[in-house]
Automatic annotation (TrEMBL):
Domain GP-PDE: 8-249
Positions of transmembrane segments: none
Highest taxon in the source lineage: Bacteria
Entry-linked InterPro entries: GP_PDE_dom, PLC-like_Pdiesterase_TIM-brl
Organism field: Nocardiopsis tropica
Name the UniProt record assigns to this protein: Glycerophosphodiester phosphodiesterase
């Protein structure tokens, strides 16, 4: 299988970063365009399904007022300010990769297969894979299995859970047949968490994952840790500070060329 990433690449988290960054709200066309303009190699989008089987871009399961996205129509979501998938994809420039974080819902377990989040997404994945680099990540292994079956040309990444143990993350991604393992940066103990006995180092983890045929992505390191991860050979970082991460990686590359 061909590689997904080149040297350590930058993925804009929910666009230009979570929340509102320089006036651009996460998971909006403005945020995606801003991430690309700031030098992101990829943009991450969060996809959810609505009550009438449309796909919208939103991280949380519910709006701020408590209404669940899956209980709302596409029109109600639009009225609440959410962006539809078509509009969001149109804002990502050609040449910028697409990282699709699929947020499945409990109803996917009982609704008709054609209505499940992954099923609704498959036509978009096939289309986008013909014109840009794409991969799918999810906390839900069922989504990854569905994508492998319905769009085998699209690489998948398993994201086990927040602060996931590295042992299960790497072994699980390999067992699922994924191309990528996505690891919470806090699992490495470099962003304030106290190291736990037995925690493997970043270089060890990355090397072992590579030997297992996996590429490694981490979410969401700060620029300092992004550079450390690049030093360890990590393949990509999903970041909230796109300009900072891009600058840190360029500075590291410049230091390497200068022999530092």
């Amino acid at each position: 299988m061909s590689r997904v990433f080149a040297a350590t690449e930058v993925i804009g988290h929910r666009g230009a970063g979570r929340g509102v960054v320089d006036g651009a709200r996460e998971n909006s066309p403005e945020s995606y365009a801003a991430a690309a303009a700031a030098g992101a190699d990829w943009v991450e989008v969060d996809v959810r399904r609505t009550a009438d089987d449309a796909l919208v871009l939103h991280h949380d399961a519910a709006l701020a007022d408590g209404r669940a996205i899956v209980d709302l129509t596409a029109g109600e979501c639009a009225a609440a300010g959410l962006t539809g998938l078509d509009e969001g994809l149109a804002a990502i420039p050609a040449g910028v990769g697409l990282d699709v974080d699929v947020k499945s819902v409990m109803e996917d377990a009982v609704d008709a297969p054609s209505r499940r989040t992954a099923s609704l997404l498959l036509p978009y994945l096939r289309r986008e894979a013909r014109r840009r680099r794409v991969f799918v990540c999810s906390f839900d292994p069922g989504v990854l299995v569905a994508v492998r079956g319905g769009a085998p040309e699209v690489p998948t990444a398993w994201m086990p859970f927040v602060r996931n143990p590295l042992d299960q993350a790497v072994a699980g991604a390999a067992g699922l047949g994924c191309a990528i393992v996505a690891v919470d940066a806090r699992s490495f103990g470099l962003t304030g968490d106290a190291p736990r006995p037995g925690r493997r180092s970043v270089p060890y983890t990355v090397d072992l994952a590579h030997r297992a045929g996996l590429e490694v992505v981490s979410w969401c390191p700060d620029p300092v840790d992004a550079a450390r991860f690049a030093e360890a050979g990590m393949d990509a970082v999903v970041v909230d500070d796109v300009p900072g991460a891009v600058s840190a990686l360029k500075a590291r590359e410049g230091g390497e060329r200068a022999g530092y």
